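INFO  loader      accepted 1 record
INFO  loader      residues=281
INFO  predictor   begin
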Amino acid sequence: MDDKVSDLYLARGVRRIETESSNLVSSSKYLNSPRLRDWCATQMLRRNGRDRPLPSDNVYLVGALARIRDETYIEALFEAERKKNAAVDRWLSERFMSTFVLEDLRDLPADSIGRRLYDFVVDNNAQLDIVPRAAPTNHFDFYTRRHLQTHDFEHILTGGLFDSIGETVPYWMNLSNMFKHLSPDLAGELNVKYVFGAVRLISRAILHYPQAWPAMLECILQGIKVGMASEPIWMLKYEEVLHLTADEARKALGIGEAYDVKTKDANDIFTEVLRGVDPLA
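INFO  predictor   done
INFO  writer      dumping tokens
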């Protein structure tokens, strides 16, 4: 550290640590990951562009995190949670997974959450299943696969529209809801992906699209309020309320404080849609 900097009040206590390593060495496994360092530098600082659609951010993030994740530790946290949290124990014992296919949603009422999901998938040439369906191999694998199944319903029921700005709502819902219903260590492990995903959107909005920030801030506040006012959202069975409207489903499932945040105009700015960038995220 520069001697002039080390004399500053806020820099007191900073010290050099000697090492024989020729590579970066840190007490943080996240900082020690070259892939994650590259992901952070790129995704926190870049603009949005057609050459790198926003959904691809998560593909590279998941790959980087998989290399450093300690699943044995996470499994132990799940088992410890089961002993003191009856709801989690029942959820893990059942390991409920969806079996419906897209066509099962087509004839549901037009304003139902099931039909809203059907219309989104069809209109955007998307897929109902983000990853192929398969039997979970452990608790974390079950959590991951089930959460991928319920993510789109989180959008609908927390009020975050299917766009990049709207993605902020379920991010912050998870970052608050899990800490309300789970032990901090387990909630922290399950939110690693979400905190990276959420912060990348914040930094890009402030750095490059400040006009979109007010709408994103509304989404952040909405996500936190919904998370703190709701039942454990990741464990809910949306399959039982596919025929209900969003408001009816929220009431039936115990999801509070939610409304549809209007983000289209801000999202057009954030995704540079006027410059021809694909807005889907």
